[in-house]
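Build the 3D complex.
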Amino acid sequence: MNAPAKVRIEDILDRVERYRPDMDEVLLRHAYVFAANRHQGQVRRSGEAYLIHPLSVAWILADMELDEVAIAAGLLHDILEDTETSPEEMELEFGPVVTRLVVALTKLSSFESKYESREATEAENFRRLLLASTDDVRVILVKLADRLHNMRTLGFLRPERQVAIARETLDIYAPIANRLGIGSIKAELEDLCFRYLHPQDAERLEKAIGQRSQAAEKWFGDLKVTLDGILEKAGIAGTVEGRIKHLYSIWQKLKRQGVEVESVFDFLAFRIIVSSVADCYAAMGLIHQQWPPVPGRIKDYIAIPKPNAYQSLHTTVIGPEGHPFEIQIRTEDMHAIAEHGIAAHWSYKERGSQPADDSRIAWLRGLLDTTQGSSPREFLDSLKVDLYPEEVYCFTPRGDVFSFPRGATVLDFAYRIHTDVGHHCVGATVNGRWVPLKTELNNGDIVEVSTSNQQKPHHDWLDIAASGRARSKIRAWLKREEKDRAEEVGRKLLEKELRRLGKSWKRVAGCKEMEELLKARGMASEETLLAAIGFGRLAAPAVAEELAGTAEAGREPALPASVAPIAFRKEAPVLEVTGDSDFLVYRAKCCNPLPGEEIVGYVTRGKGVAVHSRSCPNVQKLLYHPEREIEVRWADGAVSERSPKIRIELDMRFRDRAGLLAAISQVVAREGSNILSCNLHTADGALGTVTMTVEVRDKDHLNRIMDKLRGVEGMVDVERRGAFRRVAP
Ligand code: MN
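Done.
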């Protein structure tokens, strides 16, 4: 149901009463009055009263048909963060359950966080939120409603914030809505993000759909009559509904196939809702008699539901005049679950009870378990990988079925069975044929894993594994092994230095100087110290001197022995290492990070600190090395008109037209950049491609150029070469 233009508490009460006739009106009115009081005088960026926001969030929750506790939490969700209200006061007013929800929704401030960087604090906040959600899923449901309303009103923020928030929403919140099965919120979030992240594409697509809407209506009408007739003749009661697929899903499909919108068949689909499972199969059979199905496109998610509990039959048939179109067939119950997911389940239940065995909650809990003890960044990495919809279904020889993200391999399968099976996996027999570890899994494969006691995980396994579970297990193993090795190396180095000073490890272990040194460095144990030496973060001679009591006063034993203390070149101080300016810092060649981009630093052996773009694939590989990570940032005011420019390669695709190169070079020149090289290819009937090297100052400069290029007539696609691509589409 569409939200009223301006939501009032009365609208919410009316809506709730429709599905909960005995609702707790007192609680909702109390929450409303309290929120109105506390947010009094606050305004949103849109200029509207702040209260509009919690009211809209509560409306979204009421539309999901959630209980009063969730809706009250929606009304109060920003109270602790944005007003002078304490949890204690709230508990007196609303009791422990509502308060617990709102506390879980309240972010730790950077002041309370144990992490220095904003990114790590955000990741930690998010982990807390998910943890609380495994106890009470209403936490994440309120958060999703909050994010949905913020996305609907994103237009009032600065453009950079718009893009950053849309990115985060598309990477994390939309996939979470999907994993919890809430199709309606997932689709709206994706479409909103799409409009901010690819404005030109969105506009073009909407225009194309608009132009074909008349044809669409006629087509809908004709096919609906045929489909209705098929059901009626067979005595199946059901409704047939034609629908426009959501914008982002059309765009993804077109992009996958590298085509433009050709006809209505690309964006329209049918949904048939019947009253029983038997009718679902019967209807599909009859439809296949009318129009032949496209082989390989029949999906039976009733027999094998998706991990988010989604059920339906999907098929694509060759319609009139040879145009293929899609049909989904499901029951009423399946439809409710497809739209509202775990929220649908919730609203069937008694107030306050949580479905304990729900596979969607189990997934969340599993994710938090496998990332226990990992750094905030590793957690986010695992989360992003695990959030991709699982697409491939495979079987054990006994017939157990497992689902995997697209691109998963035999190695992922092994880790899904057991961690030890993964660690010792050497290959597998797939459908009776022997295959190596890196073999990609296909739908329906029967997989029997082979192990060997001699086998152990390797670094390149991180490239082979596609599932978050396998990757985190491999990483944990490597980390442990690396640390053991570093400790060993560190101990040897330190013993050598101590001997030089006439001491021995046995004598200094546990001594007063050791205790002081560990305390001063914030280290938990002697093992940590040895590992730090082994990894090259501490210099053995300096540590030995300090332990032997012969260190010169005031000298810090911080520098790795092999890194010369060279500061950055004076003329271009664009990078800084937080808290330590004596490192040699350089930009990594693999990802060529630009000022303004999110970056990560790694201490390399003997070469100083390599600075990578946060999204560089190599960073993903370095994740198992948190000891070597070091915080870096772009120096304030680092970039000016006179700053050295950085070369960036761009890949473009276009529809052939005269004057395109002229238009491109004009855009680049107007933005104050140069084209250093340019390669153009065209072929009949296909999109043309251009590869071009340009000079830019920073991320904003590059973004401006790319934006303008996307606006050039005939341009289909502009991408930075080597831009981070996801594991799965
Ligand atoms: Mn909010």
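The CA atoms of residues 59 and 478 lie 48 Å apart.
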